[in-house]
Amino acid sequence: MFTFATVFTVTKQEHQIQTMKRISLLISAFLLFLGNLHAQMMPQFPTIPNDTETRVGKLDNGLTYYLRHNEKPEHVADFYIAQRVGSLQEDDSQRGLAHFLEHMAFNGSRHFNGNGIIDFTRGLGVAFGKDLNAYTSIEQTVYRICNVPTQRQTALDSCLLILSDWSNGLSLLPEEIDKERGVIHGEWAMRNNAIQRLVERNLPQLFPGSKYGERLPIGLMAVVDSFQPQTLRAYYEKWYHPEHQAIIVIGDIDVDHTEKTIKELFGGIKAHDNAAHVEPVAVPDNDNMICIIDKDKEMQYTMLELDMKSDPMPREMRNTQFAYLFNYMTSMTCSMFNERMNELVREPDCPFLQLVMNYAPYIGVTTMKDAMTVECVPKEGKEKEALAAAVRELRRIKAYGFTAGEFLRAKENIMSQKEKAYSNRNKRKNDEFYGACLANYLNGNAMPDADTDYKQWQTISQMIPLEAINQMCAQAVSIDEDKNLVLICFAQEKDGAQYLTEADAKKVIADARAEKVEAWVDNAKDEPLIAEMPKAGKVVKEKKNDTFGYTELTLSNGARVCLKKTDFKDDEIILQGWAPGGSWQYGAADYSNLKIFENVVSTYGMGNFSNSELQKALAGKQCRLSIGLGNRYNNVNGNTTPKDAETLMQLLYLTFTAPQKDEKTYATLMNTLETVLKNRDLQPETAISDSLTKYLTCDNERFKQLQVSDLKNISADRCLEITREQFSDVSDYVFTIIGNFEEAEMQRLVCQYIGALPSKKNGKKNTADMRTLFSGDIQCDFDRKMETPKPYVALYFKGEAAHTLRNRILASFAGEVLQMQLLKEVREDAGAAYNIGASAYLDTEPEKSFALLRIGAPISTPEKVDTALLLIDKCVADMVRQADTDMVEKVRANLLKQADINARRNNTWQGIIETWYIYGLDVCTDYKKIVSEVTPEEVSAFLRDNILKYDNKLKVVMRPAK
Ligand SMILES: [Zn+2]
After folding, report:
1. Of 118, 432, 809, 955, which has fewest CB within 10 angstroms of its CB?
2. How far does the centroid of ligand 1 lie from the alpha carbon of residue 188, in Å?
3. Is the model's pLDDT at 4 over the cut of 50?
4. Distance CA 917, CA 547 (A)
C-alpha cells in the first residue's frame, strides 16, 4: 500500500519511483551457514563475467562508459549520465541543492541557452518529462535522453554534447535560478503528503548519528527560496567530475563512433580545483530498539513496520556467485513468507489487512545498511494485535522455517519468471540493459549475459535445498533481539483515537517473544484445474484480414477468435475479449456492485478450487486473467507466455463456466475497502477528483466514486449473478490472441477451451449512451483545509467532433501543443507550477462523439493560482489564433517516432483490431500519412471549431482554507 521509496527520489518532472532491487540479509549469519556446508557446496565464489556485448571503458580522468548496440526497438537510442553523488553530499547550507542543480541542467548550459536542451530534443521527437528527464536521490543523480531517433548521426552526437554540458557546462545563471525556485517549491508542495511529512520529521531518529537522517533530496524550502547562486555552484564544482560519472548509451548506435566521440568530448575534462571524493557515510548499529511513533491528519490508515538492520554485502562480492546465492535465498524467503501471509489475512480474526516482507536497503535509501523488513497495515484499533502477529510470524519461520509445498511453489514461481525473461533474451529492449549498467557502475553488481545469468539461477535453484533456507532463517531472523531492531508506527490522527505508545509496543513485543509458536500447516490441492476435459468445439469459418494481418476463426458456438502471430516478444501472448453488455444494463440498485465488480470477481475461486487454492495451483505459471464491465461492453483481459498458454485457456474456460464465491477472500476485500474508504476524504486530492466527477457527469450517482456508506449495498451473491449473466454465453464474444505462438497449436487450444464454452445465442444489444456530460459555463472555486497548502486548478472544455482518425489525430496534436505552451509559460517562465498537463481526445461512444480538452495542474503557492489561470486562458486563446508552427513540428516528430515503436508492440495491434470491430474505424493504415499532413492551421481550427466554439467550460479550483 504505502512505500517509502517515493519520498527519497525527486525528479525534474513528473513522479518517478526509483526501483533498484538489491540483495540483503544478515550477512554474517548467511556466511556462517555457508561455512557449515562449505565442503559439499562450492570451494569459492567465482566472479561472474560481464556481458561482452556491452562495451565498458574508462577514460584517464576516471569517466566510465557503457555502450551497447541493440535494435529493439529499431532506430532509436537511449543516453544517460549517472552521477555517483546526490543529496548526501550537500553541506548544511545546501540542503535541497543537489535536486535544484538537477533542475538547472535544463535551464541553460554551454551549448544550449535557456530551455535550449528541451527545445532541441523536442525537435528530434523526444518528449520532455517522458523521454527527457532526470532524478535525484540521496546517493545518485541520473539524467536521461531516451528514444532518440538514430537516423542522423549528428543528432546522436548532439545528445552526447548535452551529456557533456550536464557533466561540466551548466550556466547556473542567477535569473534562471530565481525562476526555478517557484517550480521546486511547487514540487515540494505536490509531494508534501502525510507520508512525506512523517518521514521528513522522523528521518533523524531513523538514522541516529548519521548524515542520512538529514538529507531528504527535496531539502529545505528555506534554502531553496533564498540560497546564493555561488552556493549551488560550489556543490556542482565539488561533486560533478569524471570520477563520479558514467555515460550509458544503448540502442541502434555505432559503438566505435560513439566511443570515439565520448573520448573527444569528455577526455579533456578535468576535475575542478575544489573537487572532492565521495566518502562513505556510516549508518551505525543501534543497541536498543529504535521506536518511531508519530501521526498525521491526512494518513488514510495506520501503518506499522519492523526493520531488522544488517550490514550489506561487501562491494567486492557483488559480482560473484555469492550474490546470486544470496539473492536466491532472500527472494525465496520473502516469496514463501508473503504467500503465507496472503493466506493468513483471509482468516476472519486476523488483526491485519496486509503483512509483507522484503529485503532491501534500510528505509530504501542507504547502501550502508540493509534490512529485512515487514510492513503491516493493521485493522483499525488492532495495532497491538497486528504487531504481535508480525512478531509471531517472524518467530514461526525462525523456529520452523517453511514447508516442502511452500518451497516448491516459491521455486517454481521464481524460476518461471527467470525462464520467461530468458526466452525473450534476443528481444530485450534498450531499457532492460540500462538497469544492469547502472547497478554495475553504482553498486558493482554483476552484469552477465543472458546465458550466464540463467545458468546461474538454474544451478543455484537446484543446489539449495529447503533445509538450507530454513537454517538461514533460524539464524538471520533476529526478531528476538533489540539490537538493530527498528519499529515504525505512522498513525492516522483523529479525534478520540487511541494511539500505540512506545511502552505498549515494547510490552507487545516482549509478550510475543515469550509465546510458544507452532509449525505452519500448508494446505494445497494436488489436482488438475479442470477434472474432465470439456467437449471441444470446431472452427466453422476461417477468414483472413490482410490489412491488419490476422485470421478470424468462427467457432461452432458462435464465438469469434482473431489470431495474430507476431515476433515482437518471444515470451508474450496477450488475450482480449469483448461482447455487447456492460454496466449500463444495470440500474441504480446495482451501482455499488458495479463500482466494485472487478475487485469482487478477483476474490472468486474456480471449479473445485478456493481463491487461495487456485493461487497455489498456479505456482510457476505465468498467466493472468481478469474480467470486467465497461460501459457498454464486457471485457476479458489476459496475458501469458507460450509455455503457459494452455493454463490461460483453462482459466478462461473456468471463468465462464465455474466461478465460485469465496467468502473468506471476499470478507478480506470488504475489510480492506472499509479501512481505505473510511478515510478517503482526508487527502486534499480527493476533493478535486470528486468535484470534477460531480460536475463532469452532472452529478450522476452512477459515476460517483465508491464511498464507505455504499459498502452495505454490495452483495457477493449479486456480483456472482451478474458475472453469470454476462460471462456465460460466449456466442457474442470476439477474442484477439496476439503474440508468439504456433498457429496450429493455438487453434487446437481455441477449439478445446473457447470452442467448448456454452452458447445461448441471445444476441445481446448494447444499451444506449447513459451519460450526460456537463454543458454551459460551470465554475467551482472552493477552499479546503490542508496540512500543506496545495492549490489545484482543473479545466475541461467540451465540443463535438465526428469519430474519425483525422479528428483523433488532431485532438492529440491540440493537447500536446497546448501542453508544451503551458509548460513554457506557466512552469518555466512564471514558476507557477511544477507540472501542468493538457490533453484532448474524442470520447468514443459512437452515437455521440464528444471532443474534450482537459487541463490540470498543482499550483506552486496559493498566491500563484490566479496568475496560472490567466496564463492558461492566454495560452488557449493564443493557440486558437495560431498554433505554434515549431511546436506542431515537434509533436509531429514525436508521434511519428512513437508510431514506429508502437507498431512492434502486441498491445498496439490489440487496440487496432478492437477499434476496427467496435467502431469500424481503421486507425492504422493512414495514421502516419495524416500525422505528416497536419498543419498548424488545422490544429487551431480543431481547437476552435470542435471544442471551444461550443462554450462548454468547466473550471474547478481548490485553494487552501485559511
Ligand atoms: Zn524535481
Report:
1. 432
2. 8
3. no
4. 13
Chain segment 512-529, per-residue pLDDT in tens: 999 999 999 998 998 999
pLDDT digits (tens, 9 = 90+) for 621-647: 999 999 999 999 999 999 999 999 999
Share of the chain above pLDDT 70, in %: 95
Alpha-carbon torsion 704, 710, 711, 715, what sign? negative
Do 934 and 815 touch, CB atoms closer than 8 A?
Answer: no
Kindly give the distance from the C-alpha atom of residue 831 to the centroid of ligand 1, in angstroms, as a whole number: 13
Q: Ligand 1 centroid vs 196 CA: distance in angstroms?
A: 15
Report CA(484)–ligand 1 centroid distance (Å). 33
Could you tell me how far CA 415 lies from the centroid of its own chain?
Answer: 23
Q: Exposed/middle/buried for 289, CB within 10 Å: 0-12, 13-18, 19+?
A: middle
SS3 at position 115: coil
Query: What DSSP assignment string belongs to 439-470?
Result: HHHHH------HHHHHHHHHHHHHH--HHHHH
**Distance from residue 137's CA to the centre of ligand 1 (Å):** 10
What confidence category does residue 15 fall into, taking pLDDT thresholds of 50, 70 and 90?
Answer: very low
Half-sphere exposure of 54 (CA within 13 A, CB side): 26
Rounded to the nearest angstrom, the distance between the alpha carbon of 10 and the centre of ligand 1 is: 5
Task: Give residue 9 CA to ligand 1 midpoint distance, Å.
Answer: 9
- pLDDT value of position 39: 32
Q: 33 alpha carbon to ligand 1 midpoint, in Å?
A: 44
Q: How far is the CA of 911 from the centre of ligand 1 (A)?
A: 34
Backbone φ, ψ for residue 783 (5° rounding): -100, 150
- Name all contacts of 692-699 with Cβ < 8 Å and 24+ positions apart: 692/794, 692/796, 692/954, 692/956, 695/774, 695/778, 695/780, 695/954, 695/956, 696/773, 696/774, 696/796, 696/954, 697/771, 697/772, 697/773, 697/774, 698/772, 698/773, 698/774
Contact between 616 and 525 under an 8 Å Cβ cutoff? The reply is yes
Q: How far is the CA of 225 from the centre of ligand 1 (A)?
A: 14
Q: How many CB atoms lie within 10 A of CB 391?
A: 22
Q: How confident is the model at residue 771 (pLDDT cuts 50, 70, 90)?
A: confident
* Distance in Å, CA 194 to ligand 1 centroid: 19
User: Facing residues of 310 across strands?
Assistant: 370
What is the 489 CA–ligand 1 centroid distance (Å)? 28
Average pLDDT of the chain is 92
Distance, in Å, from the CA atom of 465 to the CA atom of 144, rounded to the nearest integer, reads 43
Cα–ligand 1 centroid distance for 184 (angstroms): 6
Dump pLDDT digits (tens) for 432-448.
999 999 999 999 999 99
Distance 734 CA to ligand 1 centre (A): 45
Q: At what angle do helices 153-168 and 116-123 cross, to 10 degrees?
A: 160
pLDDT tens-digit readout, 369-389: 999 999 999 998 999 999 999
- Average pLDDT of the segment spanning 225-232: 97
Which residue, 671, 647, 618, is CA-closest to 339?
618
User: Checking phi first, is residue 615 left (phi over 0); if not, alpha (psi -120 to 50) or beta?
Assistant: alpha
Using CA atoms, how far residue 122 sits from 155, 806, 872, 886, in Å, is 12, 23, 22, 10
**Cα(87) to centroid of ligand 1, in Å?**
12
pLDDT at 23 over 70: no
SS (H, E, C) 356-403: EEEEEEHHHCCCCCEEEEEEEEECCCCHHHHHHHHHHHHHHHHHHCCC
Kindly list the distances between the CA atom of residue 149 and the CA atoms of 131, 146, 259, 616, in Å, as whole numbers in the listed order: 12, 9, 18, 45
Q: What is the pLDDT of residues 535-562, one digit of tens each?
A: 999 999 999 999 999 999 999 999 999 9
pLDDT for res 36: 40
**Residue 460 CA, ligand 1 centroid: distance in Å:** 41
Q: CA end-to-end span of the chain, whole Å?
A: 31
Residue bearing cell 476533493: 687
pTM of the model: 0.90
